[in-house]
Amino acid sequence: MDNSTLLVGLDIGTTSIKVVVADAAHQELQVYGAVAAPTRGMRHGKIVDIDQVAESVKNAIQQVSEKTNSKINRVVTALPVSMLQLESTTGLVNISDSGKEVANEEVQRVMYAAIKAAKKKDRQAVAFFPSRFLIDGEKDVDDPRTMIARSLLVQGLVMTAPSAEIHNINTVLKHADIQNNFFVPAPMAFSSVALDEAERTFGAILLDMGGGSTTATVIRDGQIKYATVDLKGAADITHDISVVLSTTMSDAEALKRDYGYADPDLASENEKFAVKAVGKDENNLVSEKYLSEIINARLQQILRRVGWGLYNHDALSLPAGVIITGGSALLAGIDDLVAADYDVKAKIYQPAQIGLRNPVYSVAYGIVNYANNLSDIGYLANTVIYHDSALVSNERPTSAGNSQKNAKRVTKKAENDTELAYNKAKLDGEVDTETRHEEKTNNNENKNKGLAAFLRKFFD
């Protein structure tokens, strides 16, 4: 296999690492293989043990390398929305007093000025999204290259992440003998495959129900408008089952996967299965409905807290509704539960490609799609931030002079970005990083009763 044309997407999750390998040599991106492997050393989306996470990444890369018969040198890595802030910024550079044709170098210089202007202590730029270029302060263009200019101004948005967190991820990849091309915000990757152009423009909610946390991200005008994070996820549902049924975490996970429903109304009271309880010689018989009530209690808690922020930002009226992904998206009835609780239309997204038909691969697949469709202007922005590491493909860099030719094959017009309120929300505390206590309940709460209602009060 020609390794130089491979795109490799890496999604480091709390409970699992997902890797998708695709080939960008053809007109349409071709997926060659994917792996989801267990993660150790992560907690609620953050690295708590570099060596353990590095070993997990190395193991996942080795598995997918063997599966695709390829040598993986470089990856494009997802960043969770909980790390991100957006800053509006402007950059201005002089080209020539008499006017000169704008080349890549001038575009890079003006984007560097804009990114530098937005620099904040203890944070570093991970992406830059130009919204417009102004030639000589008058002519508004999307791509100024080959045009004559005396001065060039760019307006756009810089996405930043904590320097310490970026250092930890880069250290993990270094220990795993992998080089990172660049970072992609997880919601941007997900939206590139889960939403069509109209949905990205007019607005949708991406609900990622991961193992260690649940995130809801509002995408409108092609960019992140608002995000909220709840530090509870699929692993907490498994823990609840383990505690209530007095069984091991591994058995609880198997029960959730094989017999669990998001909505207890879909489960049977008569369908029962044996549960091996810790400290007991005999197995307990548990019904599908009882198990599903345990699952539903935690889901309702998560959806209430996430939904409160969405309601306050009028996101529940967006035309595309809610698109669900992540491990909990596999729970039967989760889409109907979300639709009923939020009074919106909801659907589950999973990639359609053979070998990827599982919601857990949504972000990793989105990464390779996002990278493959990166515009020339987007690529130049990455070279400003990541320098010689900003390759798109798996090829090892040879020299600065030919890196763009080797790495970029697809040219598409960059989407225009509008002014966002996301960063203000971050500063105002609207992007949640801690779980809240008592909050307003939705109109459907009065239907909950019995065990589910008791557990819900207990969790709150």
Automatic annotation (TrEMBL):
- Superkingdom assignment: Bacteria
Q: Which residues form a coiled coil?
A: none
SHS2 domain spans which residues? Answer: 7-194
- Stored InterPro entries: ATPase_NBD (IPR043129), Cell_div_FtsA (IPR020823), FtsA/MreB (IPR050696), Heat_shock_70_CS (IPR018181), SHS2_FtsA (IPR003494)
One GO process term, biological-process aspect:
FtsZ-dependent cytokinesis
Q: Which Pfam families match?
A: FtsA, SHS2_FTSA
Give the primary localization class. Answer: membrane
Q: Gene3D superfamilies, alphabetically?
A: 3.30.1490.110, 3.30.420.40
Provide ranges: composition bias, Polar residues: 395-405
> Which family is this sequence assigned to?
Belongs to the FtsA/MreB family.
Query: What protein is this chain from?
Result: Cell division protein FtsA
